[in-house]
TrEMBL record:
Keywords: Signal. It comes from Leyella stercorea CAG:629. Residues 244-460 form the Sulfatase-modifying factor enzyme-like domain. This is Sulfatase-modifying factor enzyme domain-containing protein. InterPro entries: CTDL_fold, PEGA, Sulfatase_Mod_Factor_Kinase, SUMF_dom, SUMF_sf. Residues 1-20 form the signal peptide. One of its GO terms (molecular function) is formylglycine-generating oxidase activity. Residues 135-203 form the PEGA domain. Gene3D superfamilies: paralog of FGE (formylglycine-generating enzyme).
Amino acid sequence: MRNILLSFFLLFAAISSALAQKLTVESFKLAGSDLTAQTQPRKDLNNRNCALIKVGLGLQGVQFEGSIMGNVENKTGEYWVYMPQGNRLLKMKHANYAPVMVTFADYGVEKLESNRTYELVVTASSGVQAEQKQKLTIRYTPSSATVLVDNKMVKGKNGVAQTTLPVGQHSFVVACDGYESEEGTVKLKASAPSNLQITLSKEATAIQQSTVAQPTVAQQPVMQTPVTNSDNISIPVKDGISIDMVRVEAGTFTMGATPEMENPEDDEKPAHQVTLTNDYYIGKYEVTQALWKAVMGNNPSRFNGDNLPVERVSWNDCQEFISKLNSITGKKFRLPTEAEWEYAARGGNKSIGYQYSGSSNLSDVAWYKDNSSSKTHAVGSKQANELSIYDMTGNVCEWCQDWYGKYSGLSQTDPAGAASGSDRVIRGGYGGITAGYCRSSYRDYGTPGGCSNAIGFRLVLSE
């Protein structure tokens, strides 16, 4: 019996020790003077040079997951990982360590660029080190607001709240009666204290998609008559939540790198004529967290708030959501095709020819790097485009139905993208991206199972 108990204890200790070990990302940055991605290139599926990530980690047996091209090269003291441009995530796994997901935006890199070399420094630790702590100072207006950090109240005085916390990521909420609350996350670093400046905005008189006043509906499939006018419909879902949609009339437009689109990428070319033969409805707003929770019963988002866009959802997650939504409503919702998305973003047959969706002044219509404070904002809080659609070039970028592929210069009718591929199309700008990537023609892509706090979606309903 003693031998059995001893064996069990040793096994338990070994498992506990393995679980305690962790991989820690020390830094991730562009290696501006390193030309390896150009001198030793590897092509992606579109015959473009990949980005190269040199992972500095002296540990054998590490596995990498993501949109990786070819085999990972195991060099002395580092791994070479080639990835197509536009990627934002890389996952590392090892049998004896907890897996770690590297979100490039957390280190100031919005997404990978072709022909560029990046350095990712990772350390392997036993997890038994002394806990490091750092000071967080939150200055807030109005001074009567309440501050919570990690769901615990932090006492403040004269609009300043201070607390000391373990190094790492923490959540915060600043709230006050009569004002819209601010929620987000802050990453404390051992090297220096962190400071936040929060100014609350007074509550808007009208509330958007997540709280449209509708009677509670049954949760079994229902065939309800939507609230409609000639160009808009509002479809009840359940628990008082509805989906506001805008009608987009069929038409012909030029898709891609048209003259008003400044500094287009190669995959936006050639510009080509597209005809959409059927009217369709598209979401007036990005899908909110309130709608997602009503359908799925959970909330995967990094930034929490009922009227914020849902994010951290993969293309596959969107398909599951749509299937459940269709069961509840009796409708046939889907993701937009890339052509439907761009036609609506440009303003359909009411287009004035703006560079961005609704204006050539980006700040009027989009939350992006210069004004977002690196977080999402309530849907519909910027100016709409010509069709009264909001946030198509900011806040979060959006999944489309299509496989990603090259454009053809030929005229097309009701295009549905590439016949097959490894990545799905992503469109629109988001809160962490610069103005140069927010034009209505800009294209991006991601693996169907990948997710990020930069990516959400909006719905389409065919007539």
